[in-house]
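Schema walk-through. Below, the input block comes first and the output block second. Nothing else is stored per chain. Lengths vary across the set, and this one has 318 residues.
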Amino acid sequence: MVQAKTWILTKHFEGFPKDSNFELKVEELPKPKDGEVLLEAVFLSIDPYMRNVQGYCKLLVIQSNNPAFPVGSHVVGRCGWRTHTVCDGTDLIPIMPEWPQDISLSLALGTIGMPGLTALYGIEEVLGLKKGETLLVNAAAGAVGSVVGQIAKIKGCKVVGSAGSDAKVAFLKELGFDEAFNYKTVGSLEEALKKASPEGYDCFFENVGGPFSSVALQQMKNFGRIAVCGSISVYNDTTPQTGPYPHLTMIFKQLKMEGFMQSRWEHKHPESLKRLMGWLKEGKLHSREHITKGFENMPAAFMGLLQGDNIGKAVVAV
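--- output ---
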């Protein structure tokens, strides 16, 4: 029998999460039946949307009665905040067989995984970003935003990034962003956006929502496009934010705004992951990880992410 450690919610969050919302439990797992596998978590992804204690894991198959997943296989799955799990293999995604030995498998949860795919599809499928255009991305030093900016540079665009600390701004400059600013210290967000791109913005990759979005929409060029990926500024609100409302701006500037999730283009994942890996190997795409060691530190890592502690992809190493 294998013992699995698992984090559960004792109470749903009211506002910002607290330590008392989480409880660590231990459970005995049965042996895998025919068609099942026993998985051990190696890395667990930390993402803003994980308020239900669900999320992606990089897993190792340690027992198998399923020929599709032999012992020693590396896979990605959504198994929750657990050290071990038994499943029938449904929805498990094998790591690409040509994964280079010198690249950490933790990147399967980041740049060469869901965040990287989100960045790629937001740019290509939603925004249709073209060479020479100007892109604005907020939460730009996070797992998705940092990849967004780099892909836009690969495509020959001007990139402006907003982040929440001077260290994050320095990171964006290292990545090749044309302009970057700390939204917490600028006197006026409107003036910072105008200074970074006086001619306005063709495209806006939206990760934050709230007041930032209201100001940014005013800086869009006519016929601008907005890809809505996240809204981290409202995730911990106890009462919904209200207004200002953007409808007149969107009408007169004839803007296009579209929400999306990367799963819409699941049929493209294998090809897209190869493209991301190719850019990484060529040195065109760089990845930084914020790694927390120890499964017992999952809640602290999650709360740290919501406070903006991380630069790049937040991951827990079990």
